Amino acid sequence: MSIAEAHHAAEPGTSAPRRPLVPPSPPRAPDTMTALGRMTAMRKSAIATWGQRAYEEDVIQGSFFGRSSFILNTPDAIRHVLVDNYENYTRTPAGIRVLRPMLGEGLLTAEGRAWKYQRRTLAPAFTPRAVATLVPHMIAAIDETVATLREKGSAPVDLREVMQRMTLEIAGRTMFSLGMDRHGPTLRDFVVDYGERLARPHFLDLLLPLGWPSPQDFSRARFRRRWTRFIAMLMAERRAAGKKEGAPLRDLFDLMEAARDPETGESFSDEQLGDQVATMILAGHETTATALFWALYLLALDPVAQDELADEVQRVSADGALDIDRLKFTRAVIDETMRLYPPAFLIARAAAAPDTIAGLPVRKRDVILIAPWLLHRHEKLWHDPNAFIPSRFMSPSPPPDRFAYLPFGVGARVCIGAHFALVEATLALARLIGTFRVELLDKDPVMPIGVVTTQPDRSPMFTISPR
Description:
By secondary structure, this protein is an alpha+beta fold. It has a single domain, classed as CATH 1.10.630.10. Helix content is about 45%, strand content about 10%. The chain has a five-stranded mixed beta sheet with strand order 1-2-7-4-3. Strands 5-6 form a two-stranded antiparallel ribbon. A hairpin with a 2-residue loop joins β1 and β2 (about 65-70). α7 (about 135-150) runs parallel beside α17 (about 420-435) and α13 (about 270-300) packs parallel to α17. The protein is globular and about 60 Å long. The chain starts with a helix and ends with a strand. The model is unreliable at about 1-15 (pLDDT under 50). Keywords: Heme, Iron, Metal-binding, Monooxygenase, Oxidoreductase.
């Protein structure tokens, strides 16, 4: 089906209801796919390994290298794993192998007491009040991106790359009060190199115990050494820049360096601080860039929704300033984008001890899979689940079940930067669509693939024109 066939609007001058956009999505796997077939498909995209049953049934039990596996699609079961008994469910060995070289022992990968210490120490840096102090950094980078796009005129533009550069600039400024002109290309090279060579789990990554290095682990260790040297250099440069005596805290690095465990008064060591910096820069810029790309793609496919968003921006802007609390439709577009294309498409956990989930016995080391990609498109949980309908996140529609919509996870380990990311994405999308009309130059469908995040299979070209 072409994009044109996928979206039908009411004819001009008629009152026929507009059919919602159903964006392209990859074909579903045969439910009879073999374990070897799933392993092969997973190397390209985990999304391609799920069949129709996964979008219809509450719990799917299978096997995973001699252990039982469970895909959970019911809010009660998800609440049990991620909230009620979350300490019994840890990251899988394969997840640790993939994430640790980039994030070290930072908040995203830490477990147990180490995680609790980091979480309570970092929490004050991500309150709404703290994030508000970082908004000027965001606005400055967004406005510079808008100015650069104006200079391009009607030339074709790769908006995925533009969003990656913009969110990286925001990450650099909010973290270090430093522009990323000099270091941005090197950081992007690190991210791309790791994603292409080392982030996709191999067979032995899944099979071997965590204490036994796989062949990929040796390459990841070499990457880790280069990466930590680069992060240490960024921290040294930020410290050398200093700040004025008595000046207020001005960026995330200040906030994290000044952070103290409220129970012990302990601060982060340099190594721990480096892992937090890496986690915040990577998790922050890459996931937000991806969400913004998908939002722009959806709005290019749905010009009626795009015009509605632009009208809202015009209506609520005061002297050119954006009032984020009044950008209701813009925020709904972001929410609906993350429903259809959740940045983290899969949450994988391993049981540390026996348990019971949805009446089913779970043994130690069994694998629990909670897939926002499936959950957000599940036919029992959503009306018209594959359609782009931002109004489902606006009054008078009831809010979705808290355990059926997980763009940032849920429970104790909910993403600490969720508010930061939502503010950044809402402001950026409002400014971009309020300034430009965005159209797709490339009419071929763009397919989502699941590799660490929900990425497009390619970067289509867009055209932009001033409103």
